[in-house]
Amino acid sequence: MTDRKLTTSWGAPVGDNQNSITAGHRGPTLIQDVYLLEKLAHFNRERVPERVVHAKGGGAHGFFEVTNDMSQYTKAKLFNGTGTKTDMFIRFSTVAGELGSADTLRDPRGFAVKFYTEEGNYDIVGNNTPVFFIRDAIKFPDFIHTQKRDPQTHLKNPTAVWDFWSHSPESLHQVSILMSDRGIPATWRHTHGFGSHTFKWVNAEGQAVWVKYHFKTEQGVKNLDVDLAAQLAGENPDYHTEDLFNAIEKGDFPSWKLCVQIMPEEDANTYRFDPFDVTKVWSQKDYPLIEVGRMTLNRNPENYFAEVEQATFSPGTLVPGIEPSPDKMLQGRLFAYADAARYRVGANHNTLPINRPKVEAANNFRDGAMRHDANGGKSVYYEPNSFGGPTETPENKIAPFAVSGVADSVAYDEHDHYTQAGDLYRLLSEDERTRLVANIVGAMKPVTLDEIKLRQIGHFYKADAEYGTRIAEGLGLEVPAAVVQK
After folding, report:
1. CA distance 356 to 304
2. Active site (annotated) includes residue 372
3. Catalytic residue among 44, 54, 197, 300, which?
4. Which residues of the chain form CATH 2.40.180.10?
């Protein structure tokens, strides 16, 4: 134990390593938070050449077809007009493992969809879970460090994992999902996908609503038994990659129904949970699922590197009618994902065939490594200009939104990290609860400090007394008296 001060790379002390600087409590995040930018930019450059996260994955081509016109909510053309079809590409992945790791590890699954629309590309970069471990991007590099290898032993470090989670109670909801049966999908085809974050839809009249994306698998949800998953990790570590390729190759095309939850803009100020907190879900009783369309995968890549490894995604790859929300985790990802692509694939990653939009890009970006097209030719290379170069279109400006408050490093107003995790536990059957507890106990046993175990047990207990008590018993410990008395 030391009392060393946390500093920036230039030696200045860090005053807040938990909350990014925002305009008021809801933000948006301010670019003047140079420590946040430094931290995310450095994090994106820590590994060469594979992805920092989501390194192991596979993908396929397909199409999306609208089954329910959404023009009353958004002017985004890919969601307008029943029968509208849009080509798309999807990449599935695990989060923490390296490029050669096993597909069947307990881990969230990345669910990243690229739509090649007539207005440019649109990316939904989500997971197979509706929530995430943290809710502020400033904590993301620290979180992922705990999922990677110890810098001394080069081994996975359960103590680091649970130490971070126990100090970050907002992770409890996602941890409960991860440790449940859903933590190891049977295949990529048998799992749901989620945009996870809240986004803003804006219609042609400028009216806005908040939206969450749900991709519902039409193959049914199936999960793997932990022992079978471990066996497959040794016998066929590429099990999920192989399954998706073979299914499409033989004509068994997987499909998902895309639904959304829609929240009126003004409800964000009164809903019982902060609708921009990615560790929370919106109740489907409050905001029911509305069908939008159907996604079908029907074509395998011809070359893995060119189409899967070089595919780049960013939640900031948006089209008119779709905008970000003040979700602090999303705000950080808007920068970090595109920056990671520029580092990993290059400044001109969007000119590669897998990433290139169907509409011709018209901008003043020039030069850079691996520029393989005409580099803008002899056209005008600045704006504004007097020579007919590309110009802005004011009708595609973002919908204005109000901000308030004092610029500061502030946490979310709401700190109920336990209600939704407890509700999830109580929704499970007794068999599912038993497996959940067993998975958590098995994962926590290697933790070297009882202090960490007891802190985490306290979180489980606050979510549900039975939940925490059963885990404590499995670890041969007592629920901390201070937690029970509260």
Report:
1. 17
2. no
3. 54
4. 32-154+188-357
pLDDT of residue 12: 79
Report pLDDT for 313.
Answer: 96
Q: Is 197 a catalytic residue?
A: no
> What is the C-alpha separation between 474 and 274, in angstroms, rounded?
34
Identify the pLDDT of residue 159.
98
Per residue in 273-322, pLDDT (tens digit) is 999 999 999 999 999 999 999 999 999 999 999 999 999 999 999 999 99
In the 3-class helix/strand/coil scheme, how is the chain assigned residue by residue? CCCCCCECCCCCECCCCCCCEEECCCCCECCCCHHHHHHHHHHHCCCCCCCCCCCCEEEEEEEEEECCCCCCCCCCHHHCCCCCEEEEEEEEEECCCCCCCCCCCCCCEEEEEEEEEECEEEEEEEECCCCCCCCCHHHHHHHHHHHCECCCCCCECHHHHHHHHHHCHHHHHHHHHHCCHHHCECCHHHCCEECCCCEEEECCCCCEEEEEEEEEECCCCCECCHHHHHHHHHHCCCHHHHHHHHHHHCCCCCEEEEEEEEEEHHHHHCCCCCCCCCCCCCCCCCCCCEEEEEEEEEECCCCHHHHHHCCCCCCCCCCCCEEECCCHHHHHHHHHHHHHHHHHCCCCHHHCCCCCCCCCCCCCCCCCCCCCCCCCCCCCCCCCCCCCCCCCCHHHCCCCCCCCCCEEECCCCCCCCCHHHHHHHHHCCHHHHHHHHHHHHHHHCCCCCHHHHHHHHHHHHHHCHHHHHHHHHHCCCCCCHHHHHC
Residues (pLDDT < 50) of the chain are none
- Give the residue ranges of the annotated binding site: 337
Q: Annotated binding site for heme, which residues?
A: 337
The per-residue pLDDT for 1 is: 54
The rounded distance, in Å, linking the Cα atoms of 115 and 230 is: 35
Tell me the CATH number of domain 32-154+188-357, given options 2.40.180.10, 3.90.1150.210, 1.20.1260.10, 3.40.50.10540: 2.40.180.10
Single out the catalytic residue among 19, 80, 121, 127: 127
User: pTM of the predicted model, to two decimals?
Assistant: 0.93
